[in-house]
User: What shape does this take?
Amino acid sequence: MSRLFMFEKPLGMRDTLPGLYETKHKVRHVIGDVMKKWGYQFIETPALEYYETVGAASAILENQLFKLLDQQGHTLVLRPDMTSPIARVAASKMLKEITPLRLAYSANVYRAQQREGGRPAEFEQIGVECIGDHTISADGEGIALLISSLEESGLKNFQISVGHIGFVKEFFADILGTEDRVNALTTFLYEKNYVGYREHVKQLPLSSIDKQRLLDFLSLRGGEEVIEAANALLENGKGRNALDNLKQLWETLADYGQVGDRVKFDLSLVSHMSYYTGILFEVYADQVGFPIASGGRYDHLLSKFGKDTGATGFAIRLDRLIEALGTIEAREPVECILFSAERRKEAYELAFEKRSSGIKVVLQDINGVENLDASTELYEEVTMLVGKAGKESSL
Assistant: This one.
């Protein structure tokens, strides 16, 4: 093992400098306010969870979990997502209250990286979970809230792709017959390897009609007309209930005024989160090569914590959203008061007065400044209180 340099960080970890920090703070605050207006309440969960509970339920790959042992020998994980911890809290402490629950969060999650590839191992998500509601209205609310949150953050050019994991599984199972074949073909979709998908389909021992159905499946993208096209590919009614869900969702979003350019169907959409059971979605924006947000329905996750109920939610990746926004907050105006020992009390009083009126002020002993020009060029205004009382100047 090579010796680490003093400035090295663990693989995938990042520092957040002031400009980016302020941008994240502003965006987080704006989105949080939107979520509160929709009736969602913020909660926090521990960064550390038990591997056997949240770690096992999270659907994050084993090799992406950060693990450690506590003093009792239990295996712990740094939370790899927020949905599973919130499901734990809801099932154990909150579902005796009035349901459905509408919960929100803003927190860092941790996923280990095997090699340096520009992907962070720690990143912040802000999102919501609606727990205890099986209706399509809840799915529609989630997508409409997501759109409102992104628009309020200042994002203009984005699109939501909506699919249904139940439709994909039933459609594939009806044609392919075995779970292994279904999983193999689904992997191509997750990787968005459509060339590989087509080549794989051509090699399958299926009739030419079934092969064509699988190939036509890739074209199921667009507006409401996609549902009719998908129905034409079905046999034996497998997948029809899922399409009915999507039709209801489209009508729900139309009532919100949120269909058209913002929302499109993509029935080939799948997720690495294995707990999704129904409608799922991803958000794409200009200049960003990965989804900036995602979500969906997970009706069986809470049963792992002893409570069988429906749920849906979404998470926004703050780092990717800020990349899509394309701007970093400028440094807020700050004044500086330079003082010598003789006028220290006067400087303190002046700073107190300015801060009380809402002005940001830095107090700096002049003896601690090596290069006066370089040290003061960042400040909007510099006041010098040096030497005998009565000598005051602004740079």
Residues 335-394 form a domain with the Rossmann fold fold (CATH 3.40.50.12590).
